[in-house]
Design a protein that fits this description.
globular, mainly alpha, about 280 residues, about 75% helix, 12 helices
């Protein structure tokens, strides 16, 4: 069950990243995040009201608030690092965020078997390679490396925090709602500051009404992915759940291949194969 929910997390995160990447080609990234997450807030608010999730309110929701604050910082750091480039280095380094939840799992006493250790190593290597690492060419700025590592740490921290934010299903709905509200407030503030400094909130074409279905998918897929990971981490070893949930760069690369006909580089194809092999080792270990 842990593997199933963790793999569902990877699938949804990968597709959400793919959809978000398409949207940010025409609309500023901050606007994409605010709109998509606002849609998620409305949907989650309805779910919480219908399930009586408000009764689950408690101190553990501060983990959700923290996840809602850390997530946007990680996202903005990652976008800035991508802008500084080269993307062939930044993207694979961003996948190293898996080290955070794996480290927490080990610190809490989890001891994976030999097959699982091998699966973790193979899967992480596959994720890094699937990002298409640039092994030579343009030098990497120190700032880009630092920002990427900050983003990776933030992504890993969100995985840890959201897993601690609830212990029941209705509590999970409430925790995800609180996280998304915090996201919207944090990113909305960043968008306001950006506009005050002269950056446009929208493209020259105005609000992307035609893209609302994709915006809704991005926001809701991200929410469901967070929920699936929380369940996976609570029902099984965090070391296994975190690695399997971090296969999303492979999904994004395959989605680009399937929908945009982007050709996978040899190193990316090898990475996808390694990620699959690591998944099988983790599932059988």
């Amino acid at each position: 069950m842990t593997a199933l929910f963790a793999l569902a997390t990877s699938l949804l995160w990968g597709l959400a990243d793919f959809g978000g990447g398409l949207l940010t080609r025409r609309t500023p990234a901050l606007t994409v995040v605010v709109v998509s997450q606002s849609i998620a807030v409305v949907a989650l608010g309805a779910v919480v009201a219908a399930t009586g999730g408000w009764s689950e309110a408690g101190p553990q929701l501060w983990f959700a608030v923290a996840a809602g604050l850390v997530g946007p910082v990680a996202l903005l750091a990652f976008y800035k690092a991508l802008a500084l480039g080269p993307m062939g280095v930044v993207s694979p380094l961003g996948a190293l965020g898996v080290v955070v939840p794996v480290g927490v799992g080990l610190a809490l006493g989890e001891r994976p078997g030999l097959l699982q250790i091998a699966g973790i190593a193979v899967a992480v290597a596959g994720v890094v390679l699937a990002g298409g690492p640039q092994l030579r060419g343009a030098p990497v700025q120190r700032q880009a490396v630092l920002l990427t590592l900050l983003a990776a740490f933030g992504i890993g921290a969100v995985m840890v925090l959201i897993a601690e934010a609830s212990t029941t299903l209705t509590g999970l709905f409430l925790a995800l709602f609180v996280q998304r509200v915090t996201n919207v407030v944090a990113v909305g503030t960043a968008l306001y500051v950006s506009v005050r400094r002269g950056s446009p909130a929208l493209s020259a074409d105005g609000f992307p009404w035609s893209a609302l279905p994709v915006l809704a998918f991005v926001g809701l897929a991200d929410v469901v992915a967070n929920g699936a990971y929380s369940i996976a981490a609570q029902r099984g070893p965090v070391t296994v759940a975190a690695v399997l949930a971090s296969l999303y760069p492979v999904v994004t690369a395959l989605a680009a291949r399937g929908f945009l006909s982007e050709r996978l580089r040899a190193v990316q194809a090898a990475g996808a194969g390694l990620a699959l092999a690591g998944t099988l080792l983790l599932a059988t270990g």
